[in-house]
Amino acid sequence: MKSKFFPKYTAIISGSITALICLIMNIILIPRIEMNTQGIRCFDMNFPGNYENALKFLDLIGDEGRNIYLFRQIPLDFIYPVFYTVLFVSLIYILTKGKARKILAVFPFILAACDYAENIMSITMLRSGIPSESFYAAASAFTAVKTVIMYLIFAAILVLLIMYIVNRFSKRKKGENEI
Questions:
Q1: 3-class secondary structure for the chain?
Q2: Average pLDDT over residues 144-156
Q3: What's the rounded Cα separation, in Å, for the pair 63 and 85?
Q4: pLDDT band at 137, cuts 50/70/90?
């Protein structure tokens, strides 16, 4: 008998932790980092990126903002991909079968890899100060790819969820008609 433990409970647990981390980052840490940046967003929230704004952000962030970014936000952002990857893979596992499952399950790992690359590049920019324009362009490219993949995963899971609900409703309706 196949266990349903893995996808259901890992989706609930990882989803809860993902939501908690997201709330901490977006309600507490990011506003404190961006407090003095005149509306310029953090590197990983700045899509599409702009080199001049990145330089201005680095100038305006201040020591407190830089410390929060380096020693609170980014360490939490290194844990975050683990949980959202488990969440997305669990949801994909619940909502699909066969080849579709194998293909779609790759995308959360690509998303996490882009997030990690973006985090490493953010650390480099925060520690070294003024990055070269090409370095910033590469960091911004990871942010762009991460953002697009995240939206594609959300859309795919939403479509799969709708299909799953429709399919279950049709089976239930069909069962009622046979009685």
A1: CCCCHHHHHHHHHHHHHHHHHHHHHHHHHHHHHCCCCCCCCCHHHCCCCCHHHHHHHHHHCHHHHHHHHHHHHHHHHHHHHHHHHHHHHHHHHHHCCHHHHHHHCHHHHHHHHHHHHHHHHHHHHHHHCCCCHHHHHHHHHHHHHHHHHHHHHHHHHHHHHHHHHHHHHHHHHHHHHHC
A2: 96
A3: 32
A4: very high
Quote the mean pLDDT of the chain. Answer: 91
Alpha carbon of 46 to those of 91, 93, 136, 166, 171: distances in Å? 28, 31, 12, 37, 45
Query: Structure tokens of 54?
Result: 């990145």
